[in-house]
Amino acid sequence: MISYLSQEISDNADIYWFESSNKYVIVDKSFSEILSIKLGEKDDDKFIEKIKKTLDLAEENYSKIAQEMNEFILECTKPSINEIIETKTTPKRIYENICYRFNKKTVRVNFDSELTKNLIHPKFFHLQTNEEYEISAELTIFSENNKIFMFKDKEYIGEWDKKNMHEFQGKFSMELTSSFYGKIENDWMGVFHASAIGKNNNAIMLTGDSGNGKSSLATILSANGYDFISDDFTPILCNDSHVYSFPSAISIKESFFDQASSIFNEFEELESVYVNDIKGWVKYLPPKSQNAGSFNCNKVIHVNYDEKGSNELLKIDNTIAIKQFLPDAWIASSKKHAKKFITWIINTDFYSLHYNDNQKAIKLINKLI
Fold first, then answer.
1. pLDDT digits (tens, 9 = 90+) for 265-285
2. In whole angstroms, what is the distance from residue 123 CA to residue 120 CA?
3. Distance from C-alpha of 142 to C-alpha of 149, rounded to nearest angstrom
4. Where are the extended beta strands (E) located within 277-331?
5. Which of 107, 273, 299, 314 has the most CB atoms less than 10 A away?
6. What pTM does this model have?
7. How far is the C-alpha of 349 from the C-alpha of 191, rounded, in Å?
């Protein structure tokens, strides 16, 4: 029996979640009606008998529909490959250890070289502490055979090759955040490739493709009365469906250096870091103030900086919005988390922001809080 959830998310569409693959799909109502019948009836002949009561088609089309439904369900239920690799690799030496402190918790991170340190430290240098505190958790990062390995409290977490550095950094951020809040990974509903700002205990999540200006907009808003919550990594806890502060510095791309310099006096003194051929040179701007804690979040804005476009904020259908941010999201793989996520989706308003004028963008967003 296929384990799944389904829920109406608009007048025209339903969302399905399949447990075996942890995959979410959005389908229109007419397709959903047939899909729900097929999910409840494995036998093709019985399925065809049932859909004949609602569909008036040529005889040969019924078998074709059954075949297409079987193929669709097979694709949706195909398990994701999460192979657990047994490793005997252990760090040969510790080049440097650094303690990071946030939310009254201290995490020690051990690096085996300057190279591995530079994968992590520039985003969190502002959390470094030299004071003596009780260590809440210890992470060890080291490289061997062109791979990066991570251990937490001497237990193996995972390994990544060079092409998957983004996944490694996401996993590190998850472990660090969990340690700062005294949680485990399964406590979180999900993590979104988004920035977040807040006001009056309410958060707005800013999504968008890399380079579309979400980090820049978060920077601008944080200098204009908004709380900075997170940049590029926004976690939501399962129990309360709240966004939690993620204490990394804000990643500022070279194209925004001049504007950032006009907003923050200390920006010129920050070191430029070359990330990769896509992101190029960036500076990591520590938030002026950031408190640990949670924010209610029921508004998401898809950000598009368009130098020649207009300045407008439009509400969009959540079926469109989900398709925009789901591919880059991590949602915990259990029925409990899926129910929470779908409920959060239904109760959230989604918007599209096109802007080229900072002050106009601020005024448009001010209307939402």
1. 889 999 998 887 777 899 999
2. 6
3. 5
4. 280-285, 294-305, 312-316, 330-331
5. 107
6. 0.91
7. 18
pLDDT given at position 239:
95
Give the span between the Cα atoms of 318 and 315, in whole angstroms: 9
Angle of helix 165-181 relative to helix 114-124, nearest 10 degrees, comes to 50
How high does pLDDT run on average in the chain? Answer: 92
Residue 340, token pair as written in the block:
């929470």
pLDDT band at 212 (very low <50, low <70, confident <90, very high): confident
Pair of tokens at residue 25: 């799909």
Segments of 216-256 assigned E as strands: 227-230, 234-237, 242-244, 250-253
Over the stretch 304-341, which tens digit does the pLDDT of each residue have?
A: 988 888 899 999 998 888 888 888 899 999 999 999 99
- Say how many residues make up the chain: 369
pLDDT at residue 214 is higher than 60: yes
Tokens of 84: 């657990």
Residue 298's contacts (CB-CB under 8 Å, 6 or more residues apart) are 202, 344, 347, 348, 349
Rounded to the nearest 5 percent, the helix, strand and coil shares of the chain are 35, 35, 30
Alpha carbon of residue 359 to chain centroid: 27
| The pairing of beta strand 13-18 with beta strand 202-207 | unpaired
